[in-house]
């Protein structure tokens, strides 16, 4: 796909196949803040490829166990509570960013992000190493392309990767670098709303004006596009690079922590393991509220003091949320 800016500030995207040999498999990767997905063209239509665990999405989580074993996806997410300092999630918020840009994000994760000049490094005590955010993202990309290769019975080394429309040049280049580290030739970096409109309207003959509304784990984008005749023209985009599911979780985490501090006098947000458990409990409650009017948040033994162990037992209503 080719994306170029015209003088009016409009972007035009058309299909391009020059860099792909006949029969060669190219995957499209949605590298998300909280979850990622991989797709390929099968019999002329884009198909989401299930990962090795059989799921259509893969948590964008990377961890290193006590023995130094690399864990990626659901297996990494599952052990986050017992290994908070070596479990890396929402790394997309650090990719291609300067140290001065991410002060609020630093307080929201259970692992340590250090600054080396203007560059960021993620500390991993279990392997005694520091990783660039791109190296962590590369592990997610490597898993996605590896699982896709097994599913397609082909070697996958070329990809198109999507990014939020509001990613700057530094963030786009860092995403490309992550692909390179993962052993992928990144043919294109495509804006997420543009990719959505291409999937929706590439084969449509009639011209239509559509709006793509993309509320993800970390970013929120809206784009108005014109599609038809295999051409997709971006008329206008807007968005918030700091609004998504992670932020909804944080509102619940802060509510739980504030309430606990009032009743018990203990600050939970400074305890990395407690923060990880609060985050998991908040996400679970948020998801439950999609189907029920009230969700119970039960976090036994969240901490302890001289008087003994402390627990959290809360009910969060949909109206309160």
How many whole angstroms does the radius of gyration measure? 21 Å
How many helices? 7
Q: Oligomerization state of this entry?
A: single chain
Structural class designation: alpha+beta
Number of strand segments: 19
Q: What's the main sheet like?
A: 6 strands, mixed
Q: Show unreliable segments.
A: 1-11
Coarse shape: globular
- Element order, helices and strands? EEEEEEEEHEHEEEHEHEHEEEHHEE
Helix content: 25-40%
Strand content: 25-35%
| Arithmetic mean pLDDT | 89
Distance between the termini: 41 Å
Descriptive key words:
321 residues; alpha+beta; six-stranded mixed sheet; five-stranded antiparallel sheet; 19 strands; globular; disordered N terminus
Explain this structure to me?
This protein is α+β, with helices and mostly antiparallel strands. It contains 7 helices and 19 strands. It has helices at residues 74-78, 103-106, 133-152, 169-181, 192-201, 245-264, 272-288; strands at residues 2-5, 11-14, 27-30, 35-42, 45-48, 58-59, 62-64, 70-72, 87-88, 113-116, 119-124, 129-131, 158-163, 185-191, 208-215, 220-228, 231-240, 294-305, 308-317. Strands 3, 4, 5, 6, 13 and 14 form a 6-stranded mixed beta sheet that branches. A 5-stranded antiparallel beta sheet has the order 1-2-17-16-15, with helices on one face. A 3-stranded antiparallel beta sheet has the order 8-7-9. Strand 15 and strand 16 (220-228) form a beta hairpin. Helix 3 crosses helix 4 and helix 6 crosses helix 7. Mean pLDDT is 89; it is low at 1-11.
